[in-house]
Write the structure tokens for this entry.
Amino acid sequence: MNQPVAKSHPVTDRVGQALEISLRGADELLPQSEWVRKLARSEATGTPLRIKLGLDPTAPDIHLGHTVVLNKMRQLQDLGHQVIFLIGDFTTLIGDPSGRDTTRPPLTAEQIKANADTYYRQASLVLDPSRTEVRYNSEWCAPLGAVGMIQLASKYTVARMMERDDFHKRFTGGLSISLHEFLYPLLQGYDSVALGSDLELGGTDQKFNLLMGRHLQQENGMEPQCVLTMPLLEGLDGVQKMSKSKNNYIGISEDANSMFAKTLSISDELMWRWYTLLSFRSLGEIAALKAEVAAGRNPKDAKVALARELTTRFHSAAAADAAEQDFQNRSKGGVPDVIPEASLSGAPLAVSALLKQAGLAPSTSEANRLIDGGGVRVDGSPVSDRGLKLGAGVYVVQVGKRKFVRVSLG
């Protein structure tokens, strides 16, 4: 079917600014020329563009890595466009095969609903909920039925599907691919048909799925969406992408003190990447701050500013102030204002056993390793004797710089 040819519109300063905002921190914008035409048409007609982001509620928590695309959505939302936060409650039944070398384990409907309930609440810490369209893809995927699924599957070939990098690697490596996994990119693409999106956002690992949306829109005689991919944010280790399974993440629902302290733990080099992808400061402000550091300013000042910005966004300015003070107290060897508490029995109790029972070490052997390494303090005093036993009483037990528990031992 011949596609309607969009009328050309002049590229104004506002369109140029919108393009600059679109490209900030992005990996790819495909095709950029089409996006410029869409922006110009929107500017000329006063009609907002429809911008889609889909997230599958595979876990209950959103971390800073997820907010890279959410931040981009907010930037485009602030330009006046209509953002659509799509919760993939139906596609979660399949599981996104992107970047996987095994089939995702299925979740129950109850698990999906519980996770979905928390997703939008957390995403609203970034997006303006009053200007966000929230949809669930079960609205149009569930009614497809067998006939609809067959018709949808006819829009793509197995050969094209096997060009996908993760499917190709699994096939050539002799790893299994379940047939239902082929449905995932088709259904994600069908979301774009149902929503009539002009732009879809996702991580770089989502490129195949996002381009499927363009393909299926064209198959249905629609103007195809553009695709904007964002980098995958490196986690606290500065190497691997942020992930709960790798324990290198900051959850956006974490307490303010942990969020502040974890941000300060990243490397100076990683800090600038986080500024580009996570901060709402302008690129000019970031460049000026980077120049000051290059000229001799302590990079910790810039890192503190980033930690304050993130903590304020997800908590409050007052919480950021308190978190900064808490971090300073810890740096001086002080005890945080609020720490976990544990009640234990068995006094007198070996300190290694106490560490394990209080959740400060996963095993007694690991507790002994921490003691040998000088990483354990009781009431501020370092512990070097594995055989130390503590009698009944209340103790502040510290492991490393940030782990504290107030133990009541009886």
Summary: Residues 1-6 have pLDDT under 50 and may be disordered. The domain at 13-230 is CATH 3.40.50.620 (Rossmann fold). The longest strand covers residues 393-399. The first helix runs from residue 13 to 23.
